[in-house]
Design brief:
The chain is an alpha/beta fold and 257 residues long. The chain is built from eight helices and eleven strands.
Length: 257
Amino acid sequence: MSGALCIALHDVAPATWPHCARWLDLLDALGAPPLTLLVVPNFHGRGRIDRDPAFCRAIERRLAGGDELALHGYDHRDAAPAPRGARAWWRRRVLTAGEGEFAALDEAQARERIARGLEMFAGLGWPVQGFVPPAWLTSAGARAALAASGLAYTTTHTALVALARPARIAAPCLTVSPRSAWRRAASRLWLRSAEPLTAHLPLLRLGLHPADVAHRELLTCWRALLERLLARRVALTKAQALTHFAPAHVMPASHAR
């Protein structure tokens, strides 16, 4: 094996479960590598996870099979006041289409949303060690709330972040955008070209989204990449990677937001 691989399925919720289930069927057919499921407690306000017994049973089967859960925001919507300035507008409205829930929250707001999510997990008896902010966007207040949350890790687009130390493990994430035909074409090109560019990295992450499975050519490209990477890398959940790579490959937390 030439390194490790973290596979994360984003936006897991009752509203997205039909597409999530298709992803999980595909991954199981590839040998059921351990996954990190990024669960949204009330995705877009379309239904709380603790009020859908069938969804809860499905998640508990995944837990029994070795998957990990991480808290993925609370509702995955950026409802903060409109961004000021071109850069903030580009990040919050164009690149992430208003999905960066924690991009502009103050510390109190972020703490409250994290606490609500963790309370829901606790009520279901689901273990959780990590928090992944929607669209990987966090304000200074959100970062302060995470530091005080008691969780073990969070992630950025380029790193797995240990919260207790704090320290960062270099781990870039490959992901795609299925929102338009030109984005899907660019995404397929990116997946093909990124593989040799990341071959030397000790830890690589893949970020899968429910909407990806609605596009056959994109899914075919993903499957081919997964097959090749799983033949060369050992699959770990994010919590497992945090343990496996600490203290090696760690850079100070002040590096590379």
